[in-house]
């Protein structure tokens, strides 16, 4: 039985007090300040950050401890995981959330500096790697990874998006260091570079590819799920803090579970809350965090995610960002097992929901699903002015994408969507009579 979120809908209004570099000590003895580092716009961490904060679940769990302390939560928002790691190793952040590659750097830096950290739970994940996407400008003539040879590609070195780029190029027979001109840029800078034409492509993590595509500023070139390697985000905690304040870690993980259940039970409302807090379009948040979104949310530390983390180490070592990382000592699921109790086994064995085509009607608080992409298109054709957003799963990878931004293939009576042109062309090559069609032609055929 899942925990049900008993949470307030209003935004958190509790005071935010800086820890003053004394997070572990927790202030003056009666007041304990817990500092949480999060990434509001990295929306696969919302159950440990943006959504958790807006629901006030952590504060409620802390107030329920009744251990003689008054608790305050200091929420610190960052664009990437690197500064969170820097603050954690300096003893100024107690709990942080970040993607898989930054988590490894977090582990390496913590051990190197004698300030060990531990991965204690997972936020959002995709078992095939669909959280990362390579995009190009809308008018780009590039249609496959092989076209990137000799081109300028923006990414954030040390991120999971860079890991996707490196692996994808290697599979395409391109040296990821010498075959392209890699631009090491923050996501927002890379997005601007793509728009300005100073970058030919951009490899980034959520929500940047979906956001730029939704805004008409980019189109997909490569779906990270083609790698078929899990990607995820998770929660890391300072070892000394966890040992000194285990009840606080327990409270955080129980609150994370509540936020997770809230997101899964109320996906549209959760997307609206995250959109309000971040300024991201709710339609983009829902692409990733919706009922059939690219990301699945569950705090359980699944073995396949730990296995993927071990495979990621070689990418970071090759980039000289870390040496060896002892993943087994970094991962500590004992806290989340204790926090979730008998629920943990059920969560650990749960699977992502089946991919589905989905419509978000204007003014609606719930979405509508369809058995096939063709059925969705038929509905769109009849209700063009009543659609807020429409989503379809890639016919090969299952990655959800905007229906009007997908690459469509007609194969007899079937209408099949793909995130990227290369996968669509690969399908056509293997199915006689199949052909790539425009979105408008797909709508006409469906109707």
TrEMBL record:
<protein>
    <submittedName>
        <fullName>PhnD/SsuA/transferrin family substrate-binding protein</fullName>
    </submittedName>
</protein>
<feature type="domain" description="SsuA/THI5-like">
    <location>
        <begin position="88"/>
        <end position="270"/>
    </location>
</feature>
<keyword id="KW-0732">Signal</keyword>
<dbReference type="Pfam" id="PF09084">
    <property type="entry name" value="NMT1"/>
</dbReference>
<dbReference type="InterPro" id="IPR015168">
    <property type="entry name" value="SsuA/THI5"/>
</dbReference>
<feature type="signal peptide">
    <location>
        <begin position="1"/>
        <end position="20"/>
    </location>
</feature>
